[in-house]
Amino acid sequence: ERPNEPSIFERRESVVRSYCRRLDCVLDTAEGSLVRDITGREYLDFVAGAGSLNYGHNDPDMRAALIAHLEHGGISHSLDMFSSAKGAFLTTFESLVLLPRGMDHRVQFTGPTGANAVEAALKLARKVTGRTNVIAFTNGFHGMSQGALAVTGNRHHRGSPQNPLYGVTRMPYDGYLGDSVDTADLLDRMLHDPSSGLDAPAAILLETVQGEGGLNVASSAWLRRIAELARTSGALLVVDDVQAGCGRTGTFFSFEPFDIVPDLVVLAKSISGYGLPMALLLIRPEYDVWLPGEHNGTFRGNVHAFVTARVALEKFWSTVDFSADVARRSQMLARQLAGVGDLVPGASVKGRGMMCGIDVGSGRRAETVVRRCFAEGLMLETAGSYDQVVKLLPPLTTPDKVLHEGLDILLSVIRAAAS
Ligand code: PMP
């Protein structure tokens, strides 16, 4: 049996796998927005590592930097010690990301996943405030480890109901109760009413666009209100930008257009630029109260990820053009998807920037769309309370022509599924 025959995976891998059930192929090579399987079949990749490949696969400049680092004999693992690669990343991150946005946040490299950085944020907010309760929102998704799961909304993600998920109050996200109810009013009232039973929060944790939750977009007014409520209630405002950050919505951070500056920001997924594991927490300096080693782990700050992450920042964020280009492609996407409601009665387009989805009304229909698109050579995934949203996360660098090709496949599949 050859090592890449599908049967080896079936026999020896745990059934915990999920993507391969839906996107059933053995992947081999990739470039930009294209992936190839071992038979040479090409697919357009609009899953993009669940948002980890905002700059596409195998960017040539990142690859060259990585090869140069390897050939130089660059250190490959250095725990949390200082390294030249870390220094170069931090210098670039400071000059291209933090300082231009007036942010003086410290950077903490956490364990390599988004979930680990979320857990660091929860622990830190609780330590800073001396409070336990964390306010999180319906449909929020923050990861699969137990602490991150506690702030994740969807019961289906939580799996075993016996997991103890303490210390969290879930409040309705913007729009959860329909357009006529401002859920920030509800939070305001509950924070100020002693009979609401709501304990003073250590943190208010949110995504500005809920990725796994179904591409739900919070309005500018709601976000500003929540930021103000965090301030007045003495809670830390934590924005989980794991999926919506690194340019996905058009600006480097998803919260930039709203003039809010969170106390803590969580970044992961695309920060390494190359799909390498890397996650970090940005901390307002006055809240950097960690003792040495208080949130540690063996894999904090992958050196190879530092190398590619620096190139990603320099290549894409050293001018404003990239942001403008993402905005232009986002409009193109929105324009092409606008007519989808006419194809499927009740279907709606959701999201912001290049983080968008089509709510097709049922999980079954969304699943059919994803499977048929795959058969036509387009990889997509689903999101939402019932997995009823077909989600599109093409690399931000996807050429217009490829974006059109992908959307043509998607729209023709939706058209066929509706008829
Ligand atoms: N937060 C958000 C907003 C996410 O979308 C995800 C992953 N989908 C996570 C946290 C968890 O990240 P990871 O899978 O790297 O643990």
From TrEMBL:
It is an enzyme of class 2 (transferase). It comes from the Bacteria. Transmembrane segments: none annotated. Signal peptide: none annotated. Keywords: Aminotransferase, Pyridoxal phosphate, Transferase. Pathway: Amine and polyamine biosynthesis; ectoine biosynthesis; L-ectoine from L-aspartate 4-semialdehyde: step 1/3. CDD domains: OAT_like. GO terms for molecular function: diaminobutyrate-2-oxoglutarate transaminase activity. The keyword Transferase applies. InterPro entries: Aminotrans_3 (IPR005814), Aminotrans_3_PPA_site (IPR049704), Dat (IPR004637), Ectoine_EctB (IPR012773), PyrdxlP-dep_Trfase (IPR015424), PyrdxlP-dep_Trfase_major (IPR015421), PyrdxlP-dep_Trfase_small (IPR015422). Its EC number is 2.6.1.76. Its cofactor is pyridoxal 5'-phosphate. Pfam families: Aminotran_3 (PF00202). Belongs to the class-III pyridoxal-phosphate-dependent aminotransferase family. PANTHER family: DIAMINOBUTYRATE--2-OXOGLUTARATE AMINOTRANSFERASE, DIAMINOBUTYRATE--2-OXOGLUTARATE TRANSAMINASE. This is Diaminobutyrate--2-oxoglutarate transaminase. The gene is ectB.
